Queue: 3 jobs
Job 1
Amino acid sequence: MTADDFNNLQASLGISRAELCRRLGLAPNTGTAYALGRKDIPLTVALACAAIALNIQPYGEPT
């Protein structure tokens, strides 16, 4: 996942970066680093982003 992908997800959801970070369980500074390409986005975060994009609930939570 690239910084552009991360930013496009935020835009497509119509939410702030802070809200995306909250949904991902990230510190806002980490989300900013991902969005600006200063830090590589780990596979776990990329997978969580894909789940959010597909509206998949966390494992074990009612749908």
Job 2
Amino acid sequence: MKQETPCIAVCFIDPKAKLCLGCGRTLPEIARWHAMDSAERLAVMTTLHQRMQDAGLPIRASRADRKTGS
């Protein structure tokens, strides 16, 4: 089974916001990702764009966006 992930292989935690600059997840979310069920992963993924925006961090294109050119 393929696990959906927001990871774009830009792994660096912003020290102030405590968010990954590549995907917007926190370290605890990244660590638990493999153990989360699909609903929990989706719930986290729906918050990523807004939390990056709220923290004033750059919002990067997801892997899907880069493949489709969106």
Job 3
Amino acid sequence: MSDDLQALLDELAPLLVDGSPHAQALGLSLVSISPGEVVLKAPYREDLIGDPETGTLHGGVITALLDHAAGTAAFAGLGAKEAPATLDLRIDYSRPAEPGKDVIATAQCLKSHGLIAFVRAIAHDGDPDDPVAIAQAAFMISKPSVEARKRVQSDANRGTSS
């Protein structure tokens, strides 16, 4: 692991979830990040329940959690310089999350090369060996993501926002 990359990830960590209004609205939080792995948490909250009769979290919360964790792992795996876009995301749900429990997603960047990263992630509610869902994803750096970063940097340097 590169100490420089870990230092950059540590510096960017507060923005990796809080910089996304969708992740903020869901209450996602970053538990840990390293060049090879990201752990995020989705809280159990009443407003995120998908089935009032059972009290289980909505599947969309699990999807968003896995996508955000996998994207963050891809970002870290690609050197934390450009924001990647989701190319492909497959999620296999194995069971509903237990009512009352937070859900944890652990995502690992399996391979990154050039502009592409391949990631695997699991979501669980306490036992990683009994996952709620498993995801496989591919991400890429695109020309629009590079241009967006440049626009944000330019705005930050001028003290404005887009």
